Amino acid sequence: MKQEDKIIIAIIISALIIAGSIFFSIKLTGKSVDNGYDNKPLSNNNLIGQHIVTKIIDGDTIIAEGENVRLIGMDTDERGYPCYDEAKERLEELILNKEVRLEKDQTDKDQYQRYLRYIFLDDKNINLKLVEEGLAVARFYPEDVKYKDEIIKAEAQARENKLGCKWGGEEQIKPKEQLNNYSWSKLTPEKTGLSVIGACNAGNYINKEMIVEGKIADAYKSKTNTIFLNLEKPYPNHCFTAVIFSSDIYKFPENPEDYYAGKTARIKGMIKEYEGKPEIILEDVRQIEEG
After folding, report:
1. Could you tell me which CATH number the domain at 49-167 has?
2. Which of the residues are catalytic?
3. CATH 2.40.50.90 residue ranges in the chain?
C-alpha cells in the first residue's frame, strides 16, 4: 500500500471517530448543533402561556398544571364574607376546565409560593372582568402595574353604577353569627350604636363610622414610627389598615406592632380611603379591642 493511501485511510478513520464522538455526545447531553435556528423546546416550567384550569379555590385563586395560581391586580372576598360564593361561582363559570393563557407581570410568586398571573380567555382579561362585574376590588403589588389603569377604572365604574355583589343592592354587613366567635365587651353594636363589618368589606363604607372586625395579618412600624396594622391579609393585599401615628403611640400598649400582631380585633372609627385602601386612624386605645 502506498504511503499516500495510508494517509487517506487514516484521515477517513479519524473523521469517522470524531463524527461518532459528536453523535454520542449529542445523544447523551441532549444538545444540538447550532444550525442558525432556535431548536429549544418551549417550556411551561414558569407557568406562562396556555394551561388548563382544573380547580377553582376561591374567587382569586385557581389550580393549573397542579400549581396554585393567584390572580393579580384584584382581590375577592374570603370565605365567610358576603361576596365569596358569588366570585368563586363566577370564576368557575368563566374558566373551570378551560384552556386559558397565563400572563406574568414583574412578581413571579407571592409569600405563599402561589404563581401571580393575569388570566386570559379568548383574549379577555378575566382579572379585569371580575372587577368590571363588581365581584372584586383592585389590589396591586407596587411593581405589578401592567393593567393597573384599566382595573382601577373598572372598579370606579362598578362602584358608580352599583354593579355586582360588591357594590349593588343592600348594604352588605356581615351577619353577627358569621363574625368570629369572640367575646366582645366594649365595641359592640349595643354599646356603640354602630354596625360591625368584616375587614374585607370596609371599602364599601368609606366616610362612614363603623366597627371593623378581622385578624391582624401583619403589623409593622415605619421609619417615621407610624404603626400599621393590616387586617385579614398581609401587605400589599391587605383588606384594611388601622394606623397609629407616632404622636399617639404612648396611648397604646408598648410596641403595638408586636402586641396586636396575629390577634383578632375590632376597630372603631371613621373609615377613610388612602391610596385605594380603607383605613381608620387610631387616636385612642378605646378604638380597638382584642378578641
Report:
1. 2.40.50.90
2. 70, 78, 114
3. 49-167
Beta-carbon contacts of 221 under 8 Å, excluding residues fewer than 6 positions away, are 227, 228, 257
Q: How far apart are CA 141 and CA 107, in angstroms?
A: 8
Tens digit of pLDDT for each residue in 3-54?
Answer: 556 566 666 666 666 666 555 544 444 433 333 323 333 334 578 999 999 9
Distances (CA, A) of 94 to 36, 130, 137, 147, 158: 42, 10, 18, 20, 19
Q: Are 243 and 281 in contact (CB under 8 A)?
A: yes
Q: Are strands 49-58 and 61-64 parallel, antiparallel or unpaired?
A: antiparallel
pLDDT above 70 covers a percentage of the chain that reads 80
Q: What pTM was estimated for this model as a whole?
A: 0.53
Largest CA distance in the chain: 115
Question: Please, where in the chain does CATH 2.40.50.140 lie?
Answer: 176-290
CA dihedral 45, 48, 54, 58 (to 10 degrees): 120
Eight-class DSSP state of 223: T
Q: Residue 256: is the preceding peptide bond cis (ω within 30°)?
A: no
Domain boundaries 176-290, corresponding CATH code: 2.40.50.140
